[in-house]
Amino acid sequence: MAQRKNAKGSGNSSSSGSGSSSTSAGSSGGSSSPGARRETKHGGHKNGRKGGPSGTSFFTWFMVIALLGVWTSVAVVWFDLVDYEEVLAKAKDFRYNLSEVLQGKLGIYDADGDGDFDVDDAKVLLEGPSGVAKRKTKAKGLKERSTSEPAVPPEEAEPHAEPEEQAPVEAEPQNIEDEAKEQIQSLLHEMVHAEHETEHSYHVEETVSQDYNQDMEEMMSEQENPDASEPVGEDERLHHDTDDVTYQVYEEQVVYEPPENERIEVTEVTVPPEDNPVEVTQVIVEEVSISPVEEQQEVPPGTNRTTEDPEQKAKVKKKKPKLLNKFDKTIKAELDAAEKLRKRGKIEEAVNAFKELVRKYPQSPRARYGKAQCEDDLAEKRRSNEVLRGAIETYQEVASLPDVPADLLKLSLKRRSDRQQFLGHMRGSLLTLQRLVQLFPNDTSLKNDLGVGYLLIGDNDNAKKVYEEVLSVTPNDGFAKVHYGFILKAQNKIAESIPYLKEGIESGDPGTDDGRFYFHLGDAMQRVGNKEAYKWYELGHKRGHFASVWQRSLYNVNGLKAQPWWTPKETGYTELVKSLERNWKLIRDEGLAVMDKAKGLFLPEDENLREKGDWSQFTLWQQGRRNENACKGAPKTCTLLEKFPETTGCRRGQIKYSIMHPGTHVWPHTGPTNCRLRMHLGLVIPKEGCKIRCANETKTWEEGKVLIFDDSFEHEVWQDASSFRLIFIVDVWHPELTPQQRRSLPAI
C-alpha cells in the first residue's frame, strides 16, 4: 500500500531490470537515475506530470473512430434507416410553402395590377413618388442590375434563357418586399437553370415562332406560379422510335423538306430523299417541364423573333404578358392551385381541377387555357392523338371566348397551330396562322410562321410573297432571309439564293442556326464553284449539325458505325448480296424488258441533283412499301427480294432500277439519313467512262457485282461513256440498328 501511495505521489515510479522499486523523486523535481530517464523517454515528463497517450495510441483511436463511422454509414444505407426521398420532398415542400406564404402576404403590394407581387411591383414600390419603400430599405443610391445574356452560339440561343429582371443589389433585406424579391429571383434562376437542362433535345422541328411561346409560357409561370421550377416527373426521353406509337408529328413536307422529322410519312417532291432532307419543323413548347416524348424528337432551333435592334429585343423579352382578365384575377387562387398540380406533373389531377374550374367559370379564358395545356400534357404522357385533338379544340375555345387578353389569345392560337402541325394537319395549321396574322398584322414573327405554313403544304409561291413582305419591312430579318434563300434554291436560282442563306445564318437570329440551311448554302456554293462551300460544311459540323464534313445527313441515329464504303461481310447481309449476284442476269433482263415495253415506267430523276444529262429510275419498293404495278413488270425480281426483309422492310430506302445516259453528271450530294446503306448491282456497264465517288474514294461498277456504300456521305457520279449504264439499287437498314428501331423509325 505504501508503495502504491508513493508511486501516486511522485508520478515517476519505475522498476529496474531486476524488478525492485525505485526511490521517490521527492521535491527535487525528478530523478537522475537511469530508471527515471527511461520513464521520460517513454512518455513521462520531467516536471512530474503524467504523460498523455503515445503517437501509436492516437493513431489507434483515430482508426477505431473512423471505422465506426464507416460501418455506421453502411448500416444506415443498408438497413434503409433514413428515408432520403421523404427528406427531399419535405425540403421541396418547404420551398414551395415559403414561396406561397410570401406571395400570399405580399398580394396587397400588387402595384401593376397583374394580381400578384413580383419584381415589377417591387420596382414600383421602391421607385414610387412617396419614397416610403426607399426609406424603409435604406436603398438610396442603389443601382439596378439587369441580367445580360451570356454570349451563346446561335444554335444554343434560348429565347427564354434569362429572368425578367434582377433584384437591386443590397447587403441584407430590410423588409418583406426585399425578402420577396430575393425569393422570386431565386426561383426564377432555378427555372432558367432547369429549362437549360431540358431544352436541348432536337427532334420535332418548329414551324411556329418558338421564342414567343417560350417567353410567354415562362413569364406566365413567373406571373402566376413562383414554384414553377419543379420539373415534371419522368426524365427518360421517349423517342418516337417506339413500337405501337400512334403519337405522330408531321414530317417533311412536299417542298420544304425531305422526310425525317420522325413523324408523318410524306412523299418528297421538291427536295427528294436522296438529296438532302430539308424540312420545316417545330419545337414542342412547354414551360419548364418539357414532355419526355418531345425531348427526344429532332428539334431544330427555335424559329423566329424579328426585332433588329438588340435593345428592342431585350425589351421584347422583358415585356410581361397579361394572361389574366379582370374576372380571372378574382379567381387567381383557384387557378394557381390547379396550375401547381400541372407543374408538379400530376396531370390527371390537374385536368380534373381545370375541368371543374371551366364548369364553374365557363367565361374564364385562363381556366380554359389551363384545361387545354393539361390535355396537351396528357396526350404526350399517353401518346394519344385523340387526346391531343381534344387539346387543339380547347385551344380554339379559348380564342373564341369574350374578353381574352391579347397575349393569351396569341399564345393559345400559336400553340394550336403548333399542335396541328405536330399531327400533320398542315392546312388546318395554316388557317390558324392566317387568323393570327389577321389579328396581329404588325407582328412579323407571325408572318414568318405563316411563310413556314405555306412551305409545309408545298406552296412556295405564297411563302415567297410572305417573306418578301417581311423583308420589305425588316430587311435584316435573318429568319426570313434563310427561308427566302431556301425557296430561291428550290426554284433552281442557285446564285441568287447564296447571299440570303449566308446572311441569314450569319445574323444568328433564332431559327437560322439549322443544319438544313448550312446544307443548302454549301450545296449552292459547290454548284457555282465557290470553294467556301466546305468552310460552311466545317462550321456546320463544329456546331453539331453534321456528323463530319463528308457525312452531312440530317436525320440520324447516334452511335452507328460510319464509313463511306462497306464490304458484304461488314454489313452481315452476305446472303442478300449472294442472291443478287447469282441472279443478276434475271434482274437485268426484267429491267431491260420494262425499258423496251414501257419506257414511261422509268421516271426522270426529279430531285434537282443533275448538273446535266439524262437519268431515270424505275421503283419497285418505296419507304418499305411494295409498288404492285411496278412489280408486274419485274415479277421474278420482286419475288426474289421478298425473302430479304432487311431491304423490303427498309422504310428509309428504296429498291429501284437506275438508268443513266451518256453525258450525265450528278452533283455532289448526300442522302437524308445514316440509317441505311445502299447497294449497287451492276447490270449493263460500259467498259469505261462510268464512275462513282463516295467521300474521297472513287470506284467503278462491274456487271454482276455489288458495290455497297453509305449514301449519307457525300457522293458524286459521272457517266461519260458512249452508251447507257443500268444498275439495280437496293437500300438496306444499317446493320447496327436494333429490331425495335427498324420497326419504329419513321419512313423516308
Describe the structure.
By secondary structure, the protein is of the alpha+beta class. It has 30 helices and 13 strands. Strands 1, 2, 4, 5, 6, 8, 11 and 13 form an 8-stranded antiparallel sheet that branches. Strands 3-7-12-9-10 form a 5-stranded antiparallel sheet. A hairpin with a 2-residue loop joins strand 4 and strand 5. The model is unreliable at 1-53, 96-113, 124-255 and 257-316 (pLDDT under 50).
Record the SSE blueprint.
Elements: H1 2-10, H2 34-41, H3 55-78, H4 84-105, H5 119-127, H6 132-137, H7 176-198, H8 210-224, H9 292-295, H10 310-318, H11 326-330, H12 332-343, H13 347-360, H14 365-382, H15 385-400, H16 406-422, H17 426-439, H18 444-456, H19 460-473, H20 478-490, H21 494-507, H22 515-527, H23 533-542, E1 565-566, H24 568-571, H25 574-582, H26 584-597, E2 603-604, E3 610-612, E4 615-622, E5 625-626, H27 628-633, H28 635-641, H29 645-648, E6 654-660, E7 664-669, E8 676-684, E9 690-694, E10 697-699, E11 706-709, E12 715-719, E13 725-733, H30 739-744
Antiparallel strand pairs: 1-11, 2-4, 3-7, 4-5, 4-6, 6-13, 7-12, 8-11, 8-13, 9-10, 9-12
Helix pairs in contact: 8-16, 12-13, 12-14, 13-14, 14-15, 15-16, 16-17, 17-18, 18-19, 19-20, 20-21, 21-22, 22-23
Q: Helix/strand/pairing class, anyone?
A: alpha+beta
Instruction: Supply the number of helical segments.
Output: 30
User: What distance lies between the first and last C-alpha atoms, to the nearest angstrom?
Assistant: 103 Å
Helix content: 40-55%
Largest sheet: 8 strands, antiparallel
Number of strands: 13
Low-pLDDT residue intervals, each spanning 5 or more residues:
1-53, 96-113, 124-255, 257-316
Mean pLDDT: 73
Q: What is the radius of gyration?
A: 36 Å
| Overall 3D shape | globular
What percentage of the residues does DSSP assign to strands (E)? Answer: 5-15%
